[in-house]
Write a structure and sequence with these properties.
heterodimer, A: 499 residues, mainly alpha, 2 domains, two-stranded antiparallel sheet, two-stranded antiparallel ribbon, 52% helix, 2% strand, B: alpha/beta, Alkaline Phosphatase, subunit A, eight-stranded mixed β-sheet, disordered N terminus
């Protein structure tokens, strides 16, 4: 590929057809860090007619966090009504309607895919995916309305600030607090635990988020922290998090009553700033030799301390380099990113710029994640790969394109699937299997047969400046469909070495 | 292209497990066939051994975990019970075709999922020290390279080059695989990509029936494949979501119990699929750690150390609970919180390899687990 497309592939999502290609690609890449794009997408995929028009996502399908929390509560309240055999909540149609009206995971996954396919901020979206994976908040229970919000409002909206701010925003977000079980965690000496003891109830600490905050999000095990440090972090976190579902035990209540109860417990309806003093651990906590006080403000102090820790800088610099530069980054790659981190006190623009510089300097191909590859080949070919937003939730959906989370499931990668908090590996050795490669063949085939690509193979290879190996591969197979699949699964477009 | 329309319910179930098969003898391979098959069920997240196989004879059990212990447990002996989710497994115990190892795990005590999972699959001496897995190395030593099946290739099976994977695809409008096209793509790639596309090419020439992706069906499919003469000698199924820090539940409807039911269904699926080959099969579970003895404040348990291992298969001819019970009193626990592992689970894995692949224990200890002094406990399990 020519230098422009090589960099667009390694760092971004490829230039859409009809995009003017910038002259100075390195400057373009760095300037991309500040390009903002609204959520663009399509309403419907119309078959055998014109290409769907790219529009801004309707505001009505992008509820704010409070609305999302209320919808999730309603979902659970309606499920309780189903359990009680109440009329209006029993048929399949009733249950589908409840999900369609109150659960965001399908639409959020589609919006994420649309942004990646149609967005004008391709490099930011790659960084967005990197950090969404670093701060993985999977969908195991009660998280269907929050993951999309943390990816967009927690991460994408905070990509130009400091890492310390990003860390705090994500750690205190309900998607993380729910996923890693912090919502009910109570300090061993908290009011809640004393109350529970008196009433013969159970309450106490849960160290899940405290552990992963240290192990996965910041310093990593190389820092040699102890179980006591993990417990200390869990104590700082105790109190954070709003109840994601029903709040009334045996009783069915109104939304107004629900909101009153939520406000009573945490003082606010804002689940992104929700601290229950009753659950908090009084007194000082020591974590890795540093003392933190009590109360809500201690979390920010803890995340700031961890964000600036030398082991955090080393660990995340390596992860960034491995994702964007090379499976086996060199010491100069790492030094360059670490030094940008240190000299800017963790400014993400500076860190990301350093990553871009090293990714451009290294000529090594970088194997692309399944989801990144899919977005890239859709953008290159102008095919329809995802449904329109009107089709995603509808019962009467377009049979030709699968629902978004099923697509991600088939790819073996997606942020709305269940999964472990360490996220997906950037090292290609984790992705090498016959089945994984078969999926690439199948998705390329399906884009050709059902996605109505607007770009011919010949146009694409000329535009990207495909290398000799890719051209020979395409020449060696007969028929437009095979040529299309061969191009998309060529070493060049997968980010692998040619024979 | 098989057209599978998954309902949401099936879709969710599907994401709970994936299957890997391995070790197909190469055509023309002349060595005597290994004596049996070995299958591993990977339990990701940390299975709670005290819920799966509760030691009712220990007076501290109910004191330490009031909301987690099932009341309708199945009795194994005067000391141990079996979780009510294990209905099928308990039947195998009664038929002398299953055993339990208790208070066991790999010698790793630092409670990280990811270090622990790396060690339980890699079998190395330190986290992330190995690029291959213990089962992959064992298959390589037994000189039975060949096919394996799934979406990704788990570390556990890496190390035998010819291992392949299988996991049924369900992608609309993707047609049938075109062997000539895949061969051309394979030729264009350097070795690492090329070797993967070669596996796709080989698969494109085979007729596969439609396989549902629920765990029991995958196990049945794996069992059938292993029962065929010249079929794979090993398979792996992964079950996730054992990491129940909150609202763990106690009975078969709880979060942990529901996962244990999946394990029970998998074992039943294997038995059905293996048919007569059951007699020479061994199935074992593997988990990165057990869970804290004491219930935490959110009706769940945190990361611990010792857990239980389940063994099933016709290779077992006498059912036992094999345990050197360390006790649950605070002074008996590791760092005052975890069940101590008194049996090195690597010895259990080694015994299963010895049984299924016919390798010598000393060779396994040295070349598979890099621990020449690893104790041999074969006779406790298979005599």
């Amino acid at each position: 590929m020519n230098e422009h497309f090589r960099i667009a592939q390694k760092l971004g999502l490829m230039f859409l057809p009809n995009t003017t290609i910038p002259e100075d690609i390195s400057s373009w890449a760095i300037a991309q860090l500040h390009v903002k794009s609204p959520a663009l997408g399509i309403k419907q995929v119309r078959w055998h007619s014109h290409k769907p028009k790219v529009l801004e996502w309707p505001q009505s399908l992008q509820p704010n966090l409070q609305k999302r929390d209320e919808m999730f509560w309603a979902l659970k309240e309606n499920m309780e009504k189903n359990r009680r055999n109440m009329p209006g909540f029993q048929t399949k149609a009733d249950k589908n309607r409840n999900r369609q009206e109150n659960l965001m995971e399908g639409l959020d996954a589609l919006k994420f895919a649309h942004r990646n396919v149609y967005g004008e901020d391709q490099l930011r979206l790659r960084l967005n995916a990197f950090w969404a994976n670093h701060f993985r908040t999977a969908n195991i229970f009660d998280n269907g309305n929050h993951i999309g919000h943390v990816i967009e409002e927690g991460i994408l909206a905070n990509l130009n600030g400091d890492f310390s701010n990003l860390l705090y925003k994500v750690t205190s977000h309900p998607a993380m607090l729910i996923y890693l079980d912090n919502t009910y965690s109570a300090g061993p000496n908290s009011i809640e635990v004393q109350r529970a003891k008196r009433n013969g109830r159970q309450a106490g600490l849960n160290d899940n988020l405290g552990r992963e905050l240290l192990e996965l999000h910041t310093v990593s095990p190389t820092a040699n922290y102890t179980e006591e440090d993990i417990k200390g972090a869990a104590k700082v976190l105790a109190g954070w998090g709003a109840e994601p579902g029903r709040v009334s035990g045996d009783k069915l209540i109104s939304l107004a009553e629900r909101n009153k109860e939520i406000k009573k417990r945490g003082g606010t309806l804002n689940s992104w700033d929700y601290f229950k003093s009753d659950f908090a651990e009084p007194g000082n906590k020591t974590i890795m030799g540093k003392t933190f006080g009590e109360g809500k403000g201690a979390l920010r102090k803890l995340t700031d301390f961890l964000a600036g820790h030398e082991h955090t800088i080393k660990y995340i610099s390596f992860k960034l380099a491995q994702h964007f530069v090379s499976d086996n980054p060199t010491q100069p790659d790492l030094d360059h990113i670490e030094s940008a981190w240190k000299s800017s006190n963790g400014n993400l623009d500076k860190i990301h710029t350093a990553v871009i510089e090293r990714a451009i300097a290294s000529k090594e191909p970088k194997f692309q994640w399944p989801m990144t590859w899919l977005f890239q080949v859709i953008r290159l070919s102008g095919a329809n790969g995802f449904k329109g937003w009107e089709e995603e939730q509808s019962d009467d959906y377009n049979e030709n394109i699968m629902r978004t989370n099923q697509i991600f499931e088939e790819l073996g990668q997606g942020f709305w699937l269940p999964g472990q908090p360490n996220g997906y590996s950037s090292d290609k050795s984790e992705w090498l299997s016959g089945e994984m490669f078969e999926r690439r063949i199948r998705f390329a085939t399906s884009l050709y047969t059902a996605g109505s690509p607007t770009q011919k193979v010949e146009n694409i290879i000329n535009r990207i400046g495909a290398n000799k190996s890719t051209r020979e591969l395409i020449d060696s197979v007969n028929g437009n469909q095979k040529k299309f699949v061969a191009l998309m699964c060529s070493p060049e477009l997968m980010g692998l070495k040619s024979a | 292209m098989p057209k599978i329309n998954l309902t949401r319910r099936q879709f969710l179930k599907v994401s709970g497990a994936s299957l890997f098969l391995a070790g197909l003898p190469l055509p023309g391979f002349t060595k005597d066939e290994p004596p049996g098959t070995i299958s591993v069920i990977l339990l990701e997240g940390g299975m709670d051994g005290l819920t799966a196989v509760p030691p009712f004879g220990d007076p501290n059990l109910s004191r330490m975990r009031s909301s987690l212990t099932p009341e309708n447990y199945l009795e194994l002996n005067s000391f141990f019970g079996l979780h009510p989710s294990f209905k099928y497994f308990s039947g195998l115990m009664a038929k002398n075709n299953a055993s339990v190892i208790h208070a066991t795990n790999f010698p790793y005590t630092k409670r990280s999922h990811f270090e622990g999972q790396n060690l339980m699959q890699g079998g190395g001496l330190n986290p992330f020290s190995e690029k291959t897995g213990w089962l992959g190395r064992a298959l390589d030593l037994a000189k039975t390279p060949g096919r394996s099946m799934s979406l990704d290739m788990p570390l556990l099976l890496r190390g035998a080059h010819a291992n392949d994977n299988f996991f049924p695809a369900s992608i609309r409008n993707s047609g049938s695989l075109k062997t000539d096209l895949i061969n051309m793509i394979s030729n264009a790639h350097a070795e690492e990509g090329s070797s993967m596309f070669k596996k796709v090419s080989k698969k494109s020439t085979q007729q596969d029936s439609v396989v549902p992706r629920d765990p029991a069906s995958l196990a049945r499919y794996a069992g059938k494949a292993m029962a065929i003469k010249g079929g794979p000698l090993s398979s792996v199924i992964k079950v996730d979501q054992f990491d129940t820090h909150a609202s763990q539940g106690s009975d078969e409807f709880g979060r942990h119990g529901e996962r244990l039911t999946v394990v029970d269904d998998i074992i039943a699926g294997y038995k059905e699929g293996l048919g007569d080959a059951w007699d020479k099969s061994i199935i074992l579970t593997l988990t990165e750690f057990g869970r804290t003895v004491k219930e935490n404040g959110t009706w769940g348990t945190d990361h611990g150390w010792g857990s239980a291992g389940l063994l099933a298969g016709g290779a077992i001819t006498k059912s036992r609970v094999i345990s050197k019970w360390p006790g649950l009193a605070e002074g008996d626990l590791f760092e005052k919180r975890d069940l101590v592992s008194t049996i090195d689970y690597r010895s259990v894995c080694a015994a299963c390899i010895e049984n299924a692949l016919g390798l010598d224990h000393d060779l396994i200890a040295d070349k598979v687990f890099f621990t020449p002094s690893l104790p041999r406990i074969y006779d406790y399990i298979f005599s």
